């Protein structure tokens, strides 16, 4: 038994998945899950409306700093507990035994729903982008909601199929995706700065202009809700933890992959946003574009129809890789939680396919739910942005819970190979304060007056999830869900590390 498998067994689990990822590929996988190309393309119109260039540029830097604090806090815990369960396993093991089932239950369900909402936000955004590209390619055609839903179904199925081809295919797509996520925005940035033909905006406009199309009169309010654009783009770095049972030397590769992906995405994403803002020919025309995506209109104004199709295809592939990674991560999380008997019909989702070495049932469950959560788009087109807000809120609640548990727990924290030393508590406090802020911000309505059409239904989704998980735990799960499984070796190791009596 190698060191990784022995470490996993000490945490209570046997090695079932194959460790094919190393430090570089874990980083690449996490970079794909974050995917600034997907986030920026999908949320560019939102940023142009809620504050405009000033919040898109400077808000990105602000969000990057605080997101790095959250990722550092998570990376430190990941180094101590490198399991596919990730966040819910951390929360359980950072508190005394009597609190383990409850806190791991809430953390797991917020994490799972955040990941499933992530599938919808990425794949549905990709579907709308594909519809936009098709309309440019064939001319007079405007996709209807059912067209987008059909494309969404095809995209979800393609991600399920690629996740069903085994670990070798997954490893090679991870290699390709790593470079694609880096090169696609770089190539577009260089093309815009070097050969773009549009009437470019001035630096003063890009770095100082405040534009408000929300209907709200409070500048501070608009700037705060405008942070969603950057925060959604810098999301999904918990993927490094969920892939840890498929990563060699996971106790250091996982934390480094998490931090490296956040840093890389922050830097390249900022350059990407600035290059797009600089290349706008007419702000209002770009915002109200018939293509449906301001990024598409910016490329059209600079390169014409043919080259726009080429560059948009590069973005489509990057977004597709992001969706693939999101489905993979969701399946690993469902598999891990089922292994701890936390999912309905857990015996189905914990099965590892003997030849493919992946949780095949969990993959297709993720795809099915990812498609079903896109159906509200047929009723209300603003449902997509509500799903984005819900994804961000749920994931950040899940990110914050283990960090909060570490801060308040009387149990001393057993350090892993990566740790923050004396700065740990300070960084954790900053991370928790940031999570509390954005959870409040992203349930607020983005437009005024608030109507049934433009309401932020993320508040309804988040409230429903909180009520359902609470009632389920209170009346059912607390009698049978005991938290993450741990064997005697894990218990002994934890007691030794924390100086607790036997």
Cα(first) to Cα(last) distance is: 28 Å
Overall geometry: globular
Relevant CATH superfamily: Amino acid/polyamine transporter I
Strand fraction equals under 5%
Q: Could you characterize what this model shows?
A:
- The protein has helices at residues 3-10, 23-34, 36-49, 53-80, 87-93, 100-138, 145-163, 167-195, 203-208, 219-225, 228-233, 239-242, 250-278, 283-287, 294-339, 346-349, 360-372, 383-408, 424-441, 458-480, 488-498; strands at residues 50-51, 211-212.
- The longest helix has 46 residues, at 294-339.
- By secondary structure, the chain is mainly alpha-helical.
- It has a single domain (17-498), classed as Amino acid/polyamine transporter I (Up-down Bundle), CATH 1.20.1740.
- Strands 1-2 form a two-stranded antiparallel sheet.
- The two termini are 28 Å apart.
